[in-house]
Amino acid sequence: MIAHRVLFLVLDGISDRPCEALDGLTPLAAARTPVLDRIAGEGVCGIMDSIAPGIRPGSDTSHLALLGYPPQEYYTGRGPLEAEGTGIHMTAGMIGFRCNFATVDADGLVTDRRAGRISGTGPLSEAIRDGVDLSPLGVGFRLESGAGHRAALALVGEGLGDKVSSNDPKKEGVRPLTIRPCTDDPADRATADACNEFIRQSARVLFDHPMNVRRMEEGLPPANLLLIRGAGKMGAFPQFSERYGLSGSVISAATLISGIGKVVGLEHIPVPGTTGSVDSDLDAKVKTAIRELDKKEFVLMNIKGADEAGHDGKGVQKRDFIEVIDAALEPLLDLPDTLIVVCADHSTPCSIKDHSADPVPVVIRGPGVRTDRTARFDEISCAEGGLHRIRGCDLMPIALDLINKSHKYGA
Ligand SMILES: O=C(O)[C@@H](CO)OP(=O)(O)O
Ligand SMILES: [Mg+2]
């Protein structure tokens, strides 16, 4: 028997290092995960370097690699991908950025890069759209909120370059940086000037926005500054259906992932109630994936919350959310005719609150798969599985082979 459809389940940042709060276990190893363990027991397991050993992947470069688009060839920055995911269509001449709604204190120091993991920032983006004017610089802009503290910005105008730095210091307790051109090209200077002006004007709008006034009254950090990063123009991506002969959908609350899906030609299926955080409606997400697999041959589903817990350094919360994920995945066990691939896109160790290069666990389960002896889905058990150690770009070829869609190399 051979499967005819693929469910590609990325448990964002689920992989970790030993946590002190969990007696030296990783959150995944500490969690009770009967569903993932059954998938591991019925499948072939391994560990995976999303890009290559020792390379710390971003979620952008890792997802491109997992979908078989080597980032070394296709990556043009996070900004344009994140922008597409928020609904900003990136055309020639536009420069995309990823933004964080962040908090600075009265001294101008960044006190929270994520403004207390604020959500529902639509009114803030709207106020900035109304209150910021870059036309004296000959530049227009689009700004759209994403999930949580995330948003995307696109600058629109003649002669804008994409080789500019970020104002995000990537840590707290310091001032935001000034955005600078990375080359002598006047186009990069023009973009850097527009960015700095955008940040200045948007901070004025945010300063006394009613949503921030309310947050401060409630003792919550206000979203009074935008940190922007990941400048880039849209790249050219061969379409998924032509590359693999598969129709496909993407299910993700994280706009970066829906943006990547969209640009490679996957249909984005929004799911009400999903947030990209630990409060997401995972049952709705799983139901949508199952429904979508009746129509499409490939579904990419990303579940993000464990990554957030890793970034926040909360091992116990990460373990508990992994158990919530596991319970939500139960209906997938009975899916007929389906190759299920489960992996993380990168490790997000609670001990470093960021991504690391530690390889992630991976399992492939479905008809025809040569089952190995691993029956537990965690970083250590999967290292003993039959896939051994693969790279992110190996995953699509392996899946295509297992569903009989790969071409013979040679005659
Ligand atoms: O979006 C996110 O979840 C993370 C990592 O991609 O970014 P940040 O650290 O800016 O929150
Ligand atoms: Mg990620």
Characterize the structure shown.
- The chain has 411 residues and is α/β, with parallel strands linked by helices.
- 32% of the residues lie in helices and 18% in strands.
- It folds into two domains: 5-76 and 236-402, Alkaline Phosphatase, subunit A; 82-233, no CATH class.
- The chain contains 15 helices and 13 strands.
- The strands form two sheets. An eight-stranded mixed beta sheet has the order 9-8-10-1-11-12-2-13, sandwiched between helices.
- Magnesium ion (MG) binds at residues 12-13, 59, 307, 345-346.
- It catalyses: (2R)-2-phosphoglycerate = (2R)-3-phosphoglycerate.
- Keywords: Glycolysis, Isomerase.
- InterPro entries: Alkaline_phosphatase_core_sf (IPR017850), ApgAM_prokaryotes (IPR023665), Metalloenzyme (IPR006124), Pglycerate_mutase_ApgM (IPR004456).
List keywords for this structure.
EC 5.4.2.12, ApgAM_prokaryotes, eight-stranded mixed sheet, five-stranded antiparallel sheet, 2 domains, Alkaline Phosphatase, subunit A, Pglycerate_mutase_ApgM, binds 2-phosphoglyceric acid, glycolysis, 15 helices, phosphoglycerate mutase activity, alpha/beta, single chain, binds magnesium ion
